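Batch manifest, entry 17 of 40.
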Amino acid sequence: RYKKLIINNLQKTENPYLHSGNWLPSNWSKEINSSNTDVVNLHWVAGETLSIEDISRINKPLVWTLHDMWAFCGAEHIENYDENTRWIHGYTKSNRPKNEKGIDINRYAWQRKFKNWNHHIDIITPSSWLKNCVSRSELFSKNMVSIIPNPININIFKPLNQLFCRQTLNLPLTKTIIIFGAMFGGRDPNKGFDLLIESLNKLAHYQDKENILCVIFGQEKPLILPNIPYQIVWMGHIHDDYTLALLYNAASVTVVPSRQENLPQTATEAQSCGCPVVAFNSSGLPDAVSHLKTGYLATPYDTDDMANGLSWVIKNEERLLVLKKSARERALYLWAPDVVIPKYVELYNLA
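Output type: structure tokens
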């Protein structure tokens, strides 16, 4: 929180998403280099986990699994679509967004990356969308990029009896249950909580509102409740996968209204439990959801179409059963550990 305040004071930007300068040095590169590690696989290292310079000092074969856009952007983790795509052309004085003021923290961070990251790095992206971004970026356009999805525990996230799950979680046995989950999702504009509320209000035109229950997890009940015509159950933070699997199985559909995602665990875990997913047809979400087979991909940010997608999934019980079966089959085919791990091992052997 304090780092965000510092950056916000130095750089005035309309990009509301997380920024990380990664200025502070650490001893991690020394620890890594003195270890007997054969290959180093970085994941999310922003937020001062490792400085930009620390990463350049790692002298082991380096693989980096990207989970957002930070590695090839400036300090920002998510591109603001109202701004220029500086990450494609490089961050210069001339292409700074006109609405930004103060010190150009994004340019400074990008220049440090450009200066220091001239050693070989093999890139992994969980989605084809992020691979395409990496390949277009000024920083990593010449790097090898592999698509390897995030694995999920298919033995925990598996189909269970829906009535049992609802009874266990004290949820209504006969209602249609729509679930949404994100850590502090209501406060993160990227998670699309505003788009969800619009979509749910429009869903009332298609469905009997008395028969629908919304379940929200990942945040506590807010002081100001969203204005939708359905009862909401606030599950708060779920701290174990077993309870989360119960919730996915209790649901009729999971909705992921995010503006940008790589390969969201909520979508993959839900499908592994046999729960269809409705999302927008943008960023990495087409890699997560097979349109009309394991869920519905709405026109990006069109809340009318998202409401239509929710209605399409839940209104036909026969079709819902087919979607559930297909969702589980797709999860086993794409995201099971015995599918994903050999791809990592193969890349490690080449690094």
